[in-house]
Amino acid sequence: MSNLSKLTCFWNKEPQVPFFLNLVSLFIIHCHCLKSLFSLSQAKNLDKLKIFRLCNCEKVEEVISSDKGEKVATIFPKMKCLVLKDLPNLVNFSQEGGCFNWPNLQTVRVNNIPSMKTFLRDDLNTPLLKSVYITFAKKLWLGNLKKTISYMHNNPGV
């Protein structure tokens, strides 16, 4: 999805039936009115998602919004690649409590996400992830994604 300047949400009600069940990749670029992308219950339907790119969306504050205090266990279980780029208002991926379990995540690329102090509020399990790409070739790794993103926020010239 690209250049949808008036798009404010993907789904304005909780789904009665699962949607996007076979979606493998999702690229969202230049959608400047979005503040968040999915509720937790909507995101749980994206079991097959492997590649997710979110770029140049000025108002996005979080990817997964609050969902009545529901706890997270495994979401995006097949995710291999996550790209977050040019998102000036992105505060975190999700404020939901619980542990995100991404057993297949191998590549994370981030660039120009100055408002993101931490990736998640709680725990994040990414056993295959060994670094975060800051530029095409420059990498940073402090043992886990949460610490790496926090370090980047506190050291903007990295």
From TrEMBL:
InterPro entries reported for this sequence: At4g27190-like_LRR, LRR_dom_sf, Plant_NBS-LRR
Keyword Transmembrane: no
Stored PANTHER family: DISEASE RESISTANCE PROTEIN RPS2-LIKE (PTHR33463:SF209), NB-ARC DOMAIN-CONTAINING PROTEIN-RELATED (PTHR33463)
Species in which this protein is naturally found: Cajanus cajan (Pigeon pea)
Pfam families per record: LRR_RPS2
Residue span(s) of domain Disease resistance protein At4g27190-like leucine-rich repeats: 2-58
Protein name: Disease resistance protein RPS2
Keywords noted in UniProt: Plant defense
SUPFAM superfamilies: RNI-like
